[in-house]
Please model this.
Amino acid sequence: MLPEVWAMGSAAERIANLLGRLLGEELPFRLRAWDGSETGPPGPGVLVVRNRDALRRMLFRPGELGLARAWVAGDLDAEGDLYELLHRLSGLLWEREAQPSKRAALQAVPGLLALAGPQLPPPPPPEEIRRRTGRRHTLRRDREAISHHYDVGNRFYELVLGPSMVYSCAYWGGEARTLEQAQAAKLDLICRKLDLREGQRLLDVGCGWGSMVLHAAREYGVRAVGITLSQEQAACARKRVAEAGLADRIEIRVQDYRRTSDGPFDAISSIGMAEHVGDDRYREYAARLLALLRPGGRLLNHQIARRPDPDDEPYELNAFIDAYVFPDGELAPVGRTVALLEQAGFEVRDLESLREHYALTLREWVRNLEENWPQAVSLTTEGRARVWRLYMAASAVAFERAQIGINQVLAVRATGDGGSGLPLRTRAWLQEAGPDPSE
Model:
């Protein structure tokens, strides 16, 4: 029989009591249930449980996947300040030293069942990746994963990313005060770190919609090859290259990095691509890029990193990200990335963290999506638009709370006599950056 307090009160009070008992503390945010009842401390954000299906989804698929399905379907929503709500949820669910005990979880089940009712949950909402077969990070499976994320219509991405069509962390400060300026500053920073010169060959691995190769060819006079696994990205990139009059200096290919063999290149950029590689394949990735560089050539690897697990537990894919956003995506601590690059033969010469820059970038993307919400929904589906809003806002909070980071690693393929081609003052590229208004 349920303790009496669990069965009393409004739907919101009963949900809050159950969750409070499960988590061992009172909820630090406002909650509204399907009957209009509310409970919890006042705040700028409210978690809305729109119907009993939200509870059914969480009961039958506990953890992040059940929560994600409820959000994508619209059974679970947020009103007011989404970021503040996510900050409070993050501190409650992902930064607690003590996770709910099995006993507490089992005690909560009868109360949740009583609230949810006897029906089974509805089918998972669309856009979820299911029934994947075979090993992760094979050529076929990587191609399918990239297609799921990127082949959803270039116009949708343009609404979110803005005219720059750059899908990675921007570089704020100095004269960069808008998203477009900050993305241009990031591309130029990478070009300076790679010390690009006229006539050199650049390979951009995971070139997206072609922004990096366009900037490098137009501003630095290089000959560039951009590779992607997305047919829609390649089509858009080729169109942009032709419109810029740079088709004689830029080639866009639909090609896996494991199938690229026409080196040597003077420089390689990999911007937001290595998260798709996978831990088991990372040394192969690094070795392949090393082989494609001439001696003395440089690699700029721009990659999201997770914090290392203090107990060295095996890495688990985030259920929401894996099912709805980046299938098979994997994050590694930056120390492991550096170690694998060096094991492959690279000499790592510089590492720069841009964690706060990515939080600012994501907030701009969320703003773009929210300001163009009806059009975004019409270009894809409401479910996918909801996935993107939650994914980007939650990622911004994760960067702000230092749960994840983003790093640019500059590495070189040394010459036979150990030469690196780098100046004695390695960070010479910073001399060309404008003053930071925060200083």
Q: What stands out?
A: The first strand starts at residue 30 and ends at 32. DSSP finds 16 helices and eleven strands in the chain. The radius of gyration is 24 Å.
